[in-house]
Write a structure and sequence with these properties.
Layout: H1 9-15, H2 27-38, H3 54-65, H4 76-85, H5 92-101, H6 105-114, H7 120-132, H8 140-152, H9 156-168, H10 176-187, H11 192-203, H12 209-224, H13 232-246
Helix pairs in contact: 2-3, 4-5, 5-6, 7-8, 8-9, 9-10, 10-11
């Protein structure tokens, strides 16, 4: 069973981040120069968002660090300056990634908690923290709540966790048909974790391959029509939001052969 889950919680969290970082000491001088050019302050301790031209600074940072064919790193101190001192929330995911990579998960969790209104990635991350009891009291109910909210905003990993938890009745009352419909919807976009999970259920005798394949194929033509104007991931997110809003799929028919789960095991994790 563990083979269909992510290898570690930290790996899962790293996957939700917006940018990647690679250490480069040479970036410090250019960062300091950009701060000096776009902020008025006596000393770094007095730096705050009111002393800087944030829009210009943000534009210059992106130009310097995220262009020219490769991504440079903003150091932990630089990211803390941007997020904590200047309230530039668009760099918060970079800071979260940095905290995690330096094994400071509680600092990452604090940032996630303060940014929940920012979108599905933050909701999903908070769900992971509650699902694993990382720097918060473990609560599958809270985890499911956050995953469900992120799903409504089109987050695919969150939707998979909703399906997994609904199937096993973990953190929510058991909803086998909801799990089935979500798994078929995700699988229509070749979402790997959903495909592997269903393969496991089919091999274990808890789902019918023909029925599942028919449900997946019946969803694909609708999505194929829009692929030229949207990427697969964005399109999947749009369809997921529609599904979560309606909480049902009337057309095409849902994947309806999924049986009750093998076992309700609270030790299982959708994030491992």
């Amino acid at each position: 069973m563990e083979e269909i889950m992510n290898k570690s919680t930290l790996t899962v969290l790293l996957l939700i981040m917006s940018f990647a970082c690679t250490a480069e000491e040479e970036t410090r001088e250019s960062f300091d120069f950009l701060i000096e050019e776009n902020c008025e302050f006596q000393e770094i301790g007095s730096l705050d968002k009111d002393s800087c031209k944030l829009a210009v600074l943000n534009s210059e940072i992106k130009k310097s660090y995220l262009t020219n064919g490769r991504k440079k790193e903003l150091s932990l101190a630089q990211l803390e300056t941007l997020v904590l001192k200047l309230s530039m929330k668009n760099y918060s995911m970079l800071l979260i990634e940095k905290y995690i990579s330096e094994e400071k998960p509680c600092k990452a969790q604090n940032i996630v908690s303060s940014m929940l209104d920012e979108g599905p990635a933050y909701l999903y991350a908070q769900g992971v923290f509650y699902n694993e009891g990382i720097c918060v009291e473990l609560s599958h109910e809270m985890a499911y709540s956050y995953f469900e909210k992120a799903s409504r905003k089109g987050h695919l990993d969150a939707a998979y966790n909703v399906a997994f938890m609904a199937y096993f009745g973990r953190g929510v009352e058991q909803k086998v048909q909801l799990a089935a419909a979500l798994l078929a919807t995700l699988s229509a976009f070749n979402y790997e974790k959903a495909l592997k999970f269903v393969d496991f259920l089919i091999d274990s005798g808890y789902a019918d391959r023909n029925n599942f394949s028919a449900a997946v194929e019946s969803r694909k033509p609708v999505y194929e029509l829009l692929k030229q104007r949207k990427s697969r991931v964005i399109l999947a997110g749009d369809e997921l939001k529609k599904f979560m809003a309606e909480n049902s799929i009337s057309k095409p028919a849902p994947f309806d052969s999924l049986q009750a789960p093998i076992v309700k095991d609270n030790n299982l994790s959708s994030n491992k």
